Amino acid sequence: xxxxxxxxxxxxQAGGSLRLxxxxxxxxxxxxxxxxxxxxPGKEREFVAAINWSGDNTLYAxxxxxRFTISRDNAKNTVYLQMNSLKPEDTAIYYCASGYxxxxxxxxxxxxxxQGTQVTVSS
Length: 123
Description:
Elements lengths: L2 E5 L2 E4 L4 E8 L7 E7 L6 E6 L6 E3 L7 E6 L4 E6 L8 E8 L2 H5 L5 E2 L3 E6 L1
């Protein structure tokens, strides 16, 4: 079956950086768009970034534009989220997700979710 496994979360000071990874298995990774979502305590899950199957189309939430970068390596079946200039408000559980197009992923049309990885940014 399809599995998405996130890694790379942790505790970082404000202004620091983290890189999240999501390893996919169970189907042809390069045929699908991928995305990242996050959920902070007491808040709804929200879209962060999405990337199409080839990596040449990316979408970002306004709150992370210019600070976060999504990328993928189809040879490694892995999608990444490079997070720079982190802020305390970026603290959340970050989820990897897959879908059919970057646009539909950004709207929450997801077929598989990962289990999530915690990111905590201290002030």
